[in-house]
Specification:
The protein has one domain. Helix 3 packs across helix 11, helix 6 runs parallel beside helix 11 and helix 7 crosses helix 9. It is an all-alpha fold and 250 residues long. The radius of gyration is 17 Å and the shape is globular. It contains 13 helices and no strands.
Length: 250
């Protein structure tokens, strides 16, 4: 189902903005489904399916840093493998497990991570990195993939706060949040396609617009230092968490 023409003038820039936030911080994809449904008039099942596949294109932006840094790629691989397995399991279980309680947990996680990151960005103490084993990263990826498929929130909004809470470097966390969209998108969109909810043209349009925005967002974020980027990520997490809380309470 294509976007409604009456809302295209605001829908298309909003999708580009979501992509820019993905490129800059790893978060932003949570805006896509509300934009498509509220502003574009797309039914919710088709919007979720299109978003699931559309996220695969901005995930390609993360491949640049990963190709240039083999060590970073090796570190991400267990996370991505776990996400693929978890998303497949979550897509299978989504019919039987209610997502409300999970969304409440996601909201608490996002709010706490945003508060903690904002507090840390103003502290004088140096950042200490915790090196996670590949098995631990695989477990994190599986948990994120499972939660993403069950709640429809997308991988970045789960993996970014989790990695921040586990003491991972912000640069790695942002790239991982961008890259994890690819296995989650592939697993989720396959299920949506099998069940007849996927509109390829809508997914391609959303994906291309987010890809353009993501490239611009990544270049803008490269001009920020670590503390500035951490403040930006933390403020965005707090904003998303407040939005989730409003949706749960309304």
């Amino acid at each position: 189902m294509p976007l409604m023409l009456s809302g295209a003038w605001i829908v298309l820039p909003a999708i580009v903005l979501a992509g820019a936030l993905i490129g800059a911080t790893g978060i932003g994809g949570v805006l896509l489904v509300p934009v498509l449904t509220t502003l574009g008039g797309v039914p919710l099942p088709q919007a979720i399916a299109a978003a699931s596949l559309g996220f695969a294109l901005p995930a390609l932006v993360a491949l640049g840093p990963l190709r240039r840094e083999p060590a970073l790629l090796a570190r991400c691989l267990p996370l991505l493998g776990g996400a693929l397995l978890g998303a497949g399991a979550g897509a299978f279980l989504v019919r039987w497990i209610p997502g409300t309680a999970l969304m409440a947990g996601v909201t608490v996680l996002v709010l706490f991570s945003g508060w903690r990151g904002l507090r840390a960005s103003t502290a004088a103490a140096p950042h200490t990195e915790v090196r996670l084993a590949p098995a631990a990263l695989f477990g994190v990826g599986a948990l994120v993939g499972l939660g993403s498929a069950l709640t429809g929130t997308g991988g970045p909004v789960l993996v970014l706060p989790l990695l921040m809470l586990l003491g991972q470097p912000l640069a790695f966390s942002v790239v991982a949040a961008q890259a994890i969209q690819l296995p989650v998108a592939l697993a989720s969109s396959t299920v949506h396609a099998i069940e007849g909810r996927l509109e390829p043209r809508l997914a391609l349009l959303a994906g291309l617009l987010m890809l353009v925005g993501s490239i611009a967002g990544q270049r803008a974020a490269a001009r920020l230092d670590r503390l500035q980027l951490q403040r930006l990520v933390s403020l965005l997490l707090l904003t998303v968490g407040a939005w989730f809380a409003w949706l749960l309470l309304s």
